[in-house]
Amino acid sequence: MYDFTYAKPSSLAEAVRALSADAEAKALAGGQTFIPVLKQRLNHPTAIVDLAALGLSGITVAADKITIGAMTPHGVVAADKAIAKAIPGLSVLAGWIGDTQVRHRGTIGGSLANNDPSACYPAAVLALQATIKTDKRSIKADDFFQGMFTTALEPGELITAVEFPLPVEKSAYEKFRNPASRYAMVGVFVAKTAAGVRVAVTGAGQDGVFRHKEMEAALEKNFSPDSIAHIKTPAEGLNGDIHGSAEYRAHLITVMAKRAVAGAK
Length: 265
Description:
Radius of gyration: 18 Å
CATH architecture of the domain at 170-263: 2-Layer Sandwich
Helix content: 25-40%
CATH topology of the domain at 170-263: Enolase-like, domain 1
Order of helices and strands: EHEHEEEHHHHHHEEHEEEEEEEHH
Strand content: 25-35%
Largest sheet: 5 strands, antiparallel
Distance between the termini: 46 Å
Number of helices: 11
């Protein structure tokens, strides 16, 4: 690693000041992506601001929404009974992230701020029309994700919570996992709410998470695996690597989507 200064502020305002004072400073949430990047010397921050003491963790359930604090670990989301009952797909998604160690350190806010194209949470946030709350404003999911590792967050802006609207009639998440790291080679989140059906795909797109509007239209007419079985996703614009070509990922999108629809509850 390179040399850097370290700060662990006790308030949100203090953290924002620390990040705003240094253009090269970086926020540390769970560190499941950031620490390996530092070890590989792929990032050279002059300062690291640890968010662990800001009190941004916890889950709040109301009649019209579930709010998850930005520093809430994946394992806590996966184990929460209220989430499992109201949004089963979100509970399953959190339980499939990485391994036990990762799930007890990684956070929902850190995942969304990083916006890795193979991350799981962006699919749930986009499909469920969640709202990302920051220290400055509220950002709709449709406006938040802006490309690979790119979001609507401004320099120094911190995610404080994520709000998922209720009720959700049906939801499910299916992903084809890389056998070593368990990241999503292709992950599909399907959500049916009063506002309609939304299908979000992660792991496949070169620009990150995206909605599959052709599948959404088909599922609006008939919410069944058969209604999307014939839909072919173009390979253009999809990721390809040693683990799977763009064409293979295109095929997996339909497979994972069918499984998600079949298992939605």
